[in-house]
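Methods, example record. To illustrate the input and output format used throughout this study, we show the complete record for Chromosome segregation ATPase. The sequence lines were provided to the predictor; the line carrying structure tokens was produced by it.
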Amino acid sequence: AEVTRLDGEVARLGTTLAGLNSSITAAENAILSLQNQLTPLQTSLNTLTRQISEKEAALTTAKADLSKVDAQIVAQSATLRTLESAKKVNREAVAAQKVVVAGLQAQYAAVLDRIAGIDRTITLGGCLA
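The corresponding predicted structure is encoded as:
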């Protein structure tokens, strides 16, 4: 009788264990499925992070270039105003200085275009179209 009772308990525990093993297998499969979904998302995130870092570096360089050209425009425009306000205006010097200022303004516009090329949302005030 005791052996029969123990055999029944072992059978019941075996059934319980089989159920637990099935639950564990299902949970492991769910985890693997989530990992398979996470891997491409992590790859995309890493790619986006790298692209953002590259854009930040390019924007930092462009900002420095913009500041440099802006300072040159201010200085050369001041020189132009000085030439234009002289008692005896040297028309050739004024014309040459206007060419210098126009060239710097073209450089400034080129840097702005470069910035727009780095991230087109900048030209839209940071908003996606």
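Annotations derived from this record:
The CA atoms of residues 80 and 96 lie 9 Å apart.
The mean pLDDT is 92.
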